[in-house]
């Protein structure tokens, strides 16, 4: 159901790889709520071609950008403003990748070139995006930037490897840049810390299926789906949450506040 929460707003949505992607659901919801936006992903991800279906469905243009490349991000912001006919109101950072996790290298034996790549792709890319946006003054007053995080930023989840450090850095950048962008243009910057979700990135983690079931049982509301994450994200892009910034917001059915429950004790 649409409430026109994003009517007249222009956005940039990164990270939609296929219909399971959290970004894919967010794009569909943003479209339903009246937004216009561009879609972006790494040039290599474009080869799968799935994103074309989403672009067609949401009347969006695709602008490829490797999120680690400042030049690509400059092109993304300037082309988005040109295509959409004005400055941007919301940005979704839905990007994560760890070569160490992908290659199932044990955390204690991490390859450090890969480690740096994990941090660059999954966290520093948010800094680069915000820095480019600020340099171009590309985001309207009271605009909203949301990145997706995971609770391994705060607590130990051994299977999550160096992505734990990447998410901790992502959340720290959110606070630090949130301060500067708030002062500069009242732009807010937040992360949503999402439940385990069955996507390409999620399922690439060893033991994901088992952990998904554990989190489902542990959370009083069960795991939050990608669709419900999309709803939450729309609220953060909307004008209803203007005073929320520099936060890491748990969207996890209550998981983050649990110690243990009766079901697990049995
Ligand atoms: N799936 C989960 O369980 C879960 C839980 C919490 C948070 N998250 C986070 O949600 C975000 C989206 O992941 P998802 O689960 O929808 O999986 P996904 O695999 O659908 O999305 C990850 C995206 O990152 C993109 N990407 C990778 N390297 C890139 C680069 N260099 N430049 C630009 N884009 C690049 C991929 O192409 C892909 O579209 C990630 O930040 C992920 O860590 C996922």
Describe the structure.
- The protein has 266 residues and is of the alpha/beta class.
- The chain has one domain (10-252): 3-Layer(aba) Sandwich (Rossmann fold), CATH 3.40.50.720.
- It has 11 helices and 7 strands.
- It has helices spanning 22-32, 43-46, 51-57, 70-84, 99-102, 112-135, 163-185, 200-203, 208-218, 226-237, 262-265; strands at residues 10-14, 36-40, 61-62, 88-93, 139-149, 188-194, 248-251.
- The chain has a 7-stranded parallel sheet with strand order 3-2-1-4-5-6-7, with helices on both faces.
- Helix 1 packs across helix 10.
- The longest helix has 24 residues, at 112-135.
- It is globular and about 55 Å long.
- The N and C termini lie far apart (40 Å).
- The mean pLDDT is 97.
- Bound molecules: nicotinamide-adenine-dinucleotide.
- Residues 14-15, 17, 21-23, 41-42, 45, 66-68, 94-97, 121, 148-150, 194, 196-197, 199-202 line the site of nicotinamide-adenine-dinucleotide.
């Amino acid at each position: 159901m649409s409430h026109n929460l994003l009517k007249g707003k222009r956005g940039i949505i990164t990270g939609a790889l296929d219909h399971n992607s959290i970004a894919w659901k967010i794009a569909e919801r943003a479209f339903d709520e009246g937004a216009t936006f561009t879609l972006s992903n790494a040039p290599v991800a474009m080869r799968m071609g799935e994103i074309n279906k989403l672009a067609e469905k949401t009347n969006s243009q695709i602008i490829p950008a490797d999120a680690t490349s400042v030049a690509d991000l400059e092109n993304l912001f300037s082309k988005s403003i040109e295509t959409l006919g004005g400055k941007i109101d919301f940005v979704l950072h839905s990007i994560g990748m760890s070569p160490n996790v992908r290659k199932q290298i044990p955390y204690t034996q991490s390859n450090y070139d890969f480690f740096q790549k994990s941090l660059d792709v999954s966290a520093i890319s948010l800094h680069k995006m915000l820095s480019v946006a600020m340099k171009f003054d590309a985001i309207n007053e009271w605009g909203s930037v949301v990145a997706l995080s995971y609770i391994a930023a705060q607590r130990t989840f051994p299977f999550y490897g160096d992505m734990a450090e990447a998410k901790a850095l992502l959340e720290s950048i959110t606070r630090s840049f949130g301060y500067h962008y708030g002062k500069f243009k009242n732009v807010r910057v937040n992360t949503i810390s999402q439940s385990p979700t069955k996507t390409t990135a999620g399922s690439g983690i060893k033991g994901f299926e088992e952990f998904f079931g554990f989190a489902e049982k542990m959370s009083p509301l069960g795991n939050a789906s990608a669709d419900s994450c999309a709803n939450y994200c729309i609220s953060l892009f909307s004008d209803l949450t203007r005073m929320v910034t520099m936060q890491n917001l748990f969207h996890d059915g209550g998981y983050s506040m649990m110690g243990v429950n009766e079901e697990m004790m049995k």
